[in-house]
Amino acid sequence: MKSMKRFLIVATFATVAGAAWAADVGVSVSIGQPGFYGRIDLGNMPQPQLIYASPVIIQQAPVNVVRQPIYLRVPPGHEKKWDKHCRKYNACGQPVYFVEHDWYTNVYAPGYRSEHREHHEDGKDYGKEKKEKKEKKEKKEKD
Hints:
It contains four helices and three strands; from the N terminus they run H-E-E-H-E-H-H. By secondary structure, the protein is mainly alpha-helical. A three-stranded mixed beta sheet has the order 1-2-3, with no helix packed on it.
């Protein structure tokens, strides 16, 4: 009986500890942020500046299958050895256009952020309001 109780306690602890450890995996970077690499949706954005004029394709699509090109931002050098990196982006069978870093940073990211800002019916930007409250609180704590 004691060994069963001990087993349940250890199993419960292991489950809780494992869940806590899994939740602390790392930092998430989303579209529009400087460290984001991956697929981007152009939407209403201006035509991107591209690294190569033609799309890069690693695996040809089956006959009678037409795949639309996708636009990706990848770390410098990944486009040169795309056959090595395409699996990370699930894009080996896709025609891929690689967007230039400066276009992403100076055109796409600012446009994406302004289009997806946290606006509500009253038109306020609550993300900005939260930031200001946090700054005030930190200032009070320092004083």
